[in-house]
Amino acid sequence: MSVQTAERVHKLQSHAQIIDGHFDLLLDVEIQRSRGRKRVIETDYLPAFERGGVKTIVAAIFVDSDFLPEMGLRKALNQISAMHEEVKESSDKIMLCKTMDDLNIAREQGKVAFILSLEGAEPLSNDLSLLRIFYELGVRLLGLVWSRRNYVGDGSFFSPVREGKKGGITEFGVRLIEAAEEMGMIIDVSHLNDEGFWDVMEIAKKPVIASHSNCRSLANSMRNLTDDQIKALAARNGVIGMNANNFFTADRDEDANVQTLLNHVDYIAKLVGVEHVGLGLDLCDDFMKYVSPESLQHMPRKPFDVVAGHRSIPQLTTGLVERGYTDEQIKGILGTNFERVYQEVWK
Asked: Read out DSSP for 126-194?
């Protein structure tokens, strides 16, 4: 790397409002707190966020299949409670944000901002009234499904499984999407099957995101988006967060690395424009010990992150510089593209 490139990367890392649009840290935080620990985020995560220049984390609420259906609501609320307790304990360093004003305040005060998202609507079961509760607790992004069926629709499995006919968005799902948009929640189509995706494109009225999905043309996983889906999402002014998981990055493990991840950025930029690209790294290496055997059986091969944690985000910035993106384009990819959607949808 040349001195000029290094200086430019350092400047970008210092000034960009870097957002990771999808991170499952609450799964770990809730478990660690149940074992008596406190300030888990400050101790275990904040150093990497700071080293990587991360200003905002979208913290996903994910419930493993082992707890469904009976424990879905409780586990989700436990994770939200853990987040609120962490903010209380580390109030000088982190902040839970519900509005753009909150994000700006967190940045002015030098705090890492956290935004809550629901990864799969299982905690709601088929009770639409619970959506308001989650909104009041701070949830601002709604991932409709994980890679399984729920009351909203069908998920896209990591690899083909034996199943009956796939379905689109259910009657409950239609009402949920409409209610979420009315409240000011962003609809997230990552993990949704193709049939459901196209239903969302007809139902949703506001920008839609795919918080952690890549391009199916480059890595042939149902979890990735087809060219037509990318075009449809971009036409709605949406954003796609680049996923650092190996089997969403390349079809072969030996090809999965930072450069192949950046190939997905290039592909979307050429197809619909760089303003529709963000980061949704979905870093999972540290969480695999919690994933149930039932969930693992739907994965095509052993997963790993092609980015070595949040501290390695400067590698991505360097790659974007070397591939010829302008500073403004890189800032968009690193965060402001997602901010555009937040600004438009949130109330």
From this structure: T-TTHHHHHHHTTEEEEE---SS--SS--BPPSS----S------HHHHHHHHHHHHHTPEEE-TTB-H
CB 1 within 8 A of CB 10: no
**Cβ contacts of 127 within 8 Å, gap of 6 or more:** none
- In Å, how far are 25, 145, 288, 296 from 192, measured between CA atoms? 21, 6, 22, 18
Q: Which residues of 224-236 are buried (b: 16+ CB within 10 A; e: fewer)?
A: bbeeebbebbbeb
φ/ψ (deg, to 5) at 18: -75, 125
Spatial contact of 338 and 278, defined as CB atoms under 8 Å apart: yes
Q: How far apart are alpha carbons 135 and 180 in whole angstroms?
A: 9
Residue 193 has pLDDT above 90, yes or no: yes
Q: What is the pLDDT of residue 225?
A: 98
Q: Which residue has the tokens 């384009």?
A: 329
pLDDT-above-70 percentage for the chain: 98
Indicate if the alpha-carbon torsion angle 133, 139, 141, 147 is positive or negative: negative
**Amino acid found at 21:** G
Phi, psi of 255 (to 5 degrees): -95, -10
Q: What is the pLDDT of residues 11-40, one digit of tens each?
A: 999 999 999 999 999 999 999 999 999 999
Q: Cβ distance 264 to 5 under 8 Å?
A: no
Rounded-to-integer distance, Cα 336 and Cα 347, Å:
18
Q: Quote the CA–CA distance of 111 and 92 in Å, as a whole number.
A: 7
- For residue range 80-99, list pLDDT tens digits in order: 999 999 999 999 999 999 99
C-alpha closest to that of 193 among 139, 234, 146, 154: 154
Q: Average model confidence (pLDDT) for the chain?
A: 95
The pLDDT tens digits of the residues spanning 301-315 come to: 888 999 999 999 999
CB 100 within 8 A of CB 56: no
Q: Are 114 and 56 in contact (CB under 8 A)?
A: yes
